[in-house]
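B., you asked whether I could sanity-check this one before it goes into the benchmark set. Here's the sequence:
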Amino acid sequence: MAQEQFQIFGLPLGAKIPYAIKSCARNAKASSVACWLVQPSVDRNKKQSGRVMLPDDKSPAWVGLGESKLAIDSRGILESVTVGRLPMSQESLISSSIERRFGGPSDSGRYPNGNFTQWAKAEVVIQLICPTKLAICDIEFLAGAEFRRREAEKEAKAVQRLLKPQSP
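And here's what the prediction gave me:
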């Protein structure tokens, strides 16, 4: 199966990052390439995740208002980019920015504790979640393959729950 690739903030979502992400220069305020702000964590499957500084020349201004994180699998494939802790006051600006590039959302609405919006394409799924109690928003850009993997994992867990004997 061919790798899906989609450029987001100058990074190839769903494909191998063409360079090794290094630690940011001490006291760096901007960078032309993504760099780790702190040493990334590595899980048992050798997946790296951690806070990064995204290339400022390839990112909308609202990205700089939050904390950015990357998740990279053991092969160097970028699975997701998350920008979290964005001020909820920026929700409509963020939505407008996403809509200019991706069109209208495929799903949106309210849930008891906030708002959500989702844009779904074959190569990328974007989820904007804004819990009103916290007054912040998180936006996650998922490679299509990673989104499908997560959904399959959820479905398998649901099936296991249904197959588990129920106590009287």
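One thing to flag: The two ends are 46 Å apart (CA to CA). Otherwise nothing jumped out at me.
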